[in-house]
Amino acid sequence: MLGKLDWSAIPFDQPIPLVAGAIVLVGILAVLIWVVAKGHLPYLWHEWITSVDHKRIGVMYILLASVMLLRGGSDAIMMRIQQAVAYQSQGFLPPEHYNQIFSAHGTIMIFFVAMPFVIGLMNLIVPLQLGVRDVAFPTLNSVGFWLTATGALLVNLSLVVGEFARTGWLAFPPLSELSYSPGVGVDYYAWSLQISGVGTLVAGINLVTTVLKLRTKGMNYLRMPMFCWTTLASNLLIVAAFPILTATLAMLLLDRYLGFHFFTNEAGGNIMMFMNLIWAWGHPEVYILVLPAFGIFSEVVSTFSGKALFGYRSMVLATMAICVISFMVWLHHFFTMGAGPDVNAIFGIASMIIAVPTGVKIYNWLFTMYGGRIRFATPMLWAIGFMVTFIVGGLTGVLLAVPPADFMLHNSMFLVAHFHNVIIGGVLFGAFAGFEYWFPKAFGFRLDERWGKLAFWFTFLGFYVTFVPLYVAGMLGMTRRMQHYDVAEWRPWMFVAAAGMAVLSIGVICQIVQIVVSIRNREALRDRTGDPWDGRSLEWATSSPPPVFNFAFHPDVRGEDAYWDMKTRAQQQSLEHEAPEYHDIEMPRNSPTGFICAFFATIMGFALIWHIWWMVILGGIGAFATFVVFAWRDHDEYVIPAEEVAAIDRINLEERRSLVSMAGAV
Amino acid sequence: MAMTATVGHAHADPHHIGVVIEHPGPASKRIVTAYGFWVFLLSDIVMFSCFFAAYAVLVSQTAGGPRGSEIFEQRNVAIETVCLLLSSFTCGMASIAADVRNRFWFYLGMTVTCVLGLIFLVIEFREFADLVARGYGPSRSAFLTSFFSLVGCHGLHVSAGILWLLTMMAQVFGKGFRADVLRRMMCFALFWHALDIVWVGVFSVVYLLGSGV
Amino acid sequence: MSDQAHTRTEHDIAPGDEEQHSVGERVIGYVVGLGLALLLTATSFFIAGTDLVWQPSIPVALIVLAIAQMGVHLVFFLHITTGPDNTNNVLALAFGAMVVFLVVGGTVWIMGHLNQNMPPMDQIMQMHR
Fold it and tell me: Between A530 and B123, where is the model more confident?
């Protein structure tokens, strides 16, 4: 009746996951009770859960990422403490638990922190920058978000019901095959990634179509803000790479569930093919994450330097070059696998070549800053911190791209330090920069600068104190994923790294404090004009937070830096606006499709993991029925009457005019 | 505000090479929907390419089991191929009928498409069942694993397509040729034709090339 | 999002949509496509089973025929053309084709070299015997 599920699935003998799970459960229950008791449930349901507004969905993505960042971060803290204490001893984490923690840490940080964070920012900002009212497929957008949330839910469920994979974040066979991992850990891993992978694919298709087909009047390709270009490149990569992940995990699941022989040791299966396929997804994936961050930095650097982006066209070219070359380097993740010198050499050279467009970008940012009036606001600090950190990470990456050097450093702590260097220094700093930069746009008030700067400095310094020792430990021969070790030389470095982790954690706490303080002082920090940073692209041309329809009119774009252009012209023409004529606006109706679909997906995923077949069928039918019901509805749009549009728009227009006339008077 | 900092940036588009064609604004819903689906199809084909790659890698790993030439029946494959090609044609007829809002030809075209698709599935199912009965199931060897999953993946897509086809017919029956129904019909036609393209790869690589290995 | 939707068919066209044609012309398009596809399929099946041609050329011929038939399907069934209104659709297709080529070609190349340098398990077993 319940497949493999029984009471032994709950780890009563392991206090750490049980207590952690209990705390999370109590937390969720407390929030739920508070929401219901305060009567916020209808608001939550109508305004957020069923919302198809790209801004709301973007915020929910970021919220999901932030919560999961805390989960993945606690895993990281446990690992650092374990390696600091586990010298010639077992430390405080038993091996099978430690293995689950590093697997969960990697999985969560990539799939449920970095991905939702950048997708959330893209969702929130790209339609605004393109001057349109929503993404191409608003309801699908909601489906995509909720499926990602389903994946995250399943991963967290594995904490208390069953176990998580002990195979590392990519579940390499033969360890992940049924004969070596008979438990449900790998199944939790694979199904949560399959479900959230569908969500990611949906988001990718949506954003590609949005950038290519929904742009306001005059927004030619070469007038798009850089963030839109990197969004396009990143989502093209999602669309092309995520199917590879889906196929590879499907093969692994077929091996595990139906006795197929893709990656088994017996009957001619080929383990190496898994490495090959998973990294054919895995390498584009790192560019999926970092390209949007590059876009964020381009926006931030140009805004806070008060200059147009230097070398816009070379930046576009570099972005698209990365988009293509990122599909030609995947073998550098397994140089040591034995493909031979010619294959290794060609992929090594391709890996070095891909550093060139990235270098172009760095120079472009530096030249944008050169001669500009730089304002060192928090987003700009993150951008500068990124440039320094990312160059170090990029250079160690080029080092690893040399096959003979890689043979020495493969799977060492040096590698661990390298990819944390690029992912934290690139993606996470980018996500934080974007968060600080666009927070006023999403919520209508700025974030507290003092706490923001503190958060930056603690995170920045904490990062170096944590990861430079790992480089050294790697050079001293320490391999990754060690539950305990007997080499005395490594120990001091592990202590330093643990101390660095503490500093990093203070950075995270500062960030939380920053949000709390800013919410408290929101009246003082209120952004009335919608343009708190003296911005250059169209998202600043509407109020903060933007009305549900984003723009009363589709803005007319005449060049790069569309909004800067408008401001300049408005000043020169001394503001003789005639009263504009407003029209009715049609907007997509809210729909619970995404939420219901995710509900059935959760049931189906859970049932698949535990082999509860009747429940699988039930979930499948439910999901199909949801879509049919959605397809049958007669009214998919509602109309906002012209008077309402006018009323909303006029308030913002007044604020904006007073701002421009003030600036004109200066 | 430092708005006065950099005035004189009026020529934000400095490289006017010839005449710049102004972008006309957001595309119509029909174009947006079909384009999005087109992008999805491309991603689906990338997924198929992984199974093709796996087949290419594992085709010689028979582990003492049968080779392709010993189990493939050219005649069945030919019938399957003709079924799919004809169904692509009738699906095209159904989409023309939908565009001119002719119910009779639409239902006829869709029904024939559905029947041809079902014949294809029955033949494929019998081939699979026969192989499994002879002990040549997917767990026999890595070659059979890759064969079953590649061909089966295409078969699953055809099954999903038939489910979608029936839903489309029900939609036209219930809602008529509404704009959103027509958009979905266009996506369905794209899907069905794309499956044919994948099948061309399948019969060429798996059945014809594979029996030569 | 769909306010006063600019239907600019002269600049852009949905994939799968044709330019304005009468029903008769469209049907003829499908008939031609079906004919060509059947012809190419028949050739493929014939080539694969025949000993009339030089044997090593058969795999190449089959691949060429398959690509040709995919082209026929794209043009006559999916209506992907070289017209300016189709630029976006063709670019997306080209990107997809490139990725397919890289994944399949790369995998075959890498795994081929691997098998050469490190034979698969069962061959190692056989060598030990």
Answer: B123
pLDDT value for C125:
62
Crossing angle (nearest 10°) for helices A271-305 and A413-422 = 40
Q: A264 is written with which tokens?
A: 């088994």
* Distances, alpha carbon A167 to alpha carbons A77, A101, A259, A545, C42, in Å: 20, 10, 19, 44, 49
Residues 6+ apart with CB under 8 A from C29: C18, C21, C76
pLDDT score, position B9:
41
Per-residue confidence (pLDDT) for residue B2, from 0 to 100:
36
Q: Which residues in chain C are contacts of A587 at CB distance < 8 A?
A: 1
Q: Which residues of chain C have pLDDT under 50?
A: 1-10
- For the CA atoms of chain C, what is the radius of gyration? 22
Give the pairing of strands A585-588 and A637-640: antiparallel
Assign C80 to helix, strand or coil: coil
- pLDDT for the residue numbered C10: 42
B47 and A219: CB-CB below 8 Å?
Answer: no
User: Chain C contacts of B24, Cβ < 8 Å?
Assistant: 6, 8, 11
- ipTM of the complex model: 0.89
pTM, full prediction: 0.89
Sign of CA dihedral A49, A54, A55, A59: positive
The C-alpha R_g of chain B, in whole angstroms, comes to: 24
Rounded to a whole number of angstroms, the distance from the CA of B76 to the nearest CA of chain A is 25
Any chain C CB within 8 A of the CB of B88?
yes
Sign of the CA dihedral with B79 first, then B189, A281, and A599 last: negative
Sequence-separated contacts (24+) of A644-650 with Cβ below 8 Å: A645/A547, A645/A549, A645/A552, A645/A582, A645/A583, A645/A584, A645/A585, A646/A552, A646/A582, A648/A547, A648/A552, A649/A547, A649/A552, A649/A580, A649/A582
Q: Report the length, in residues, of chain A.
A: 666
- Judged by CB atoms closer than 8 Å, whether chains meet at B46 and A243 is answered as yes
**Exposure b/e, A457-484, CB count within 10 A at least 16 = b:** bbbbbbbbbbbbbbbbbbeeebebebbb
Contact at CB, C113 and A585, closer than 8 angstroms: no
Q: Quick check: A120 and A153 in contact, CB under 8 A?
A: no
A587, C1: Cβ pair inside 8 Å?
Answer: yes
Does A559 lie at the interface with B, CB-CB under 8 angstroms? yes
Which residues are paired to B148 by β-bridges?
Answer: none
Confirm if A295 and A230 have CB atoms less than 8 A apart.
yes
Ranges of chain A whose pLDDT falls below 70: 571-579, 659-666
CA distance A657 to chain C (A): 27
What are the chain B neighbours of A274 within 8 Å (beta carbons)?
none
Q: How many CA atoms lie within 13 A of A482 on its CB side?
A: 25
- Bin A259: left if φ > 0, else alpha if -120 < ψ < 50, else beta: left
Mean pLDDT computed over B19-38? 82
Residues in chain B: 213
Q: How far is CA A450 from CA A382, A456, A511, A516, in A?
A: 14, 10, 11, 13
Cα–Cα nearest to A298, from A391, A433, A135 = A433
B51 contacts in chain C (CB < 8 Å): none
Chains A, B: CB contacts within 8 A come to 190
Q: Which residues pair with A445 in a beta bridge?
A: A526
Locate the domains of chain C by residue range.
Answer: 21-79, 84-129
In terms of CA atoms, which chain C residue is nearest residue B44?
A: C96
